[in-house]
Amino acid sequence: MQRPRQPYRKSPAQRRRGPVPPAANGPAYAVPRRGTRRGAPTRQPLYLRYSPSTLLIFGASAVLVLFGACLILMMLVFGLMYGSGRVLPGVHAAGVNLGNLDEGEAAVRLAGDWARQGIVLRDGERVWAVSAEEIGITLDAAATARAAQAWGRTQGGISGAIESIFGGIEIRPVLAVDLDRFTDYLHEARAFVDVPAVNAGVELVNGRATATPARAGRQIDVNAMLTHIRQDAAGELADGVLDLVLIPARPAVVDSSPLVEQANTLLSSAFRAEGYDPIRDEWHHWTAPPDVWAGWLTAAPDDSSPTGLALTLNREGPAAFLQANAQFADERYIEIEDAVTAMQAALARSETRAVMRVRHRTTTYTVRAGQTLSAIAEEVGIPYPFIQAENPGINIDALSAGQQLTLPSRDLLVPLEPVPHKRIVVSRGQQHLWAYENGQVVFDWVISTGLPSSPTAPGVFQVQSHELNAYAQQWNLYMPHFMGFYHPGPNMDLMNGFHGFPTRGGGYLLWTGDLGHPVTYGCVLLSLENAERLYNWAEEGVVVEVRSE
Length: 549
Fold this sequence. Notes:
Largest sheet: 5 strands, mixed
Radius of gyration: 50 Å
Number of helices: 16
CATH architecture of the domain at 414-547: Beta Barrel
CATH class of the domain at 414-547: Mainly Beta
Strand content: 25-35%
CATH superfamily of the domain at 414-547: L,D-transpeptidase catalytic domain-like
Oligomer: single chain
Structural class: alpha+beta
Distance between the termini: 184 Å
CATH topology of the domain at 414-547: L,D-transpeptidase catalytic domain-like
Shape: elongated
């Protein structure tokens, strides 16, 4: 039996609130979208149809698929390269890229680049190339190419192959090193690589000497370089560049202030370099003012000095000064190193005057018609055996007009350091001797020179020996107070010289009444008394000039 339907009645609360609003999560009835048919279903976008986690999964899957495809492609390419037998990409040796070359091509490229580019040296600041032969390092191109081809296969493995392809690899070249030649080159390179340390010194500022700071230098560590190249030449030159090992050079003196007072005294005057020419008996002077030679001053350790220091000259300054100023228009010159040494020695004595020797080079002589070698020797003042020795192969009996002869340096006959303030002059024409000291005549004597068949040679010579009673075996003569001053020819022990009246056999004197006339076999004869006086006065080094007139 059906229950009768009850009429709808609002509750008291409903009657108080009024109509019930739509639910908060949507309209109470469907609102059709604009442009759509009422009641038709709508398509939502993908990002609304799938959750973010689902989309992330889809993206990661796509990336993995793409990565896998690339990896497969790379493996295919790698397999092709690996199986081709060629050098893998990224492989270098001695700074040469060998990638994708076969072994033969790699060897050819290595040999060509090694010969063309040489070995690159680097000293931290500069880079330069030298030939492999010059430095004594030889590349075995074939063996190096073989090692390059083996990289990533029998050498280095798969990891090495990957490293070469993605990052590049330098393999060790196969080298042979001539250590003696390598050492020689390092010593040669020191001339332009080494920077010498500079001791503290002195400079002139507004007319007063002030101390200058020291500067450190550098030099090639030859021993370290030899150790490195001996132990691992291939590693040192894997990239084709050899870095020089440099060590600092420390100055010996870092504070020169104790020498400033002495420098001020010395710099109150110019420095005089005086050149003496013993052949011509001439003086030449070159003067450096204080503001110039102040720049030459430096300090050096000196245990004999109370301060432990001494002023000296750096070699570069005076050498440059002499090269610029001590010039001649003929064969004469100054030996720069000897001159600088003389200047340093003068400063060590607190002197600003140094004496140096003017020297002579070889010269040429043009033969005139009818001349003999003996006549030429008389004219130029050089014994003919010395000229003959300077011109090997000449026929002295058949000289021709216009023939060129080389005359030896006149210094050959003045081998010792000359004594500038003394000089002996012998005149063959006047049969006379004059001895000078400081330009003044101290001896003026009659003498005798050699016979025309054995003349005393003209020229400029030098006292070279002293012997109280010399014996001449060739003539069976004893010669008292003998001073030898020239050899008649090169490589001859015999010397001509000054001596008193000689003795022979039972001891009787010879030639006592012949002074003033040629009588000897080439020597210069004096009386017994005069021979002794000259013997004691003339030290070795005194110049002897023999004149024809």
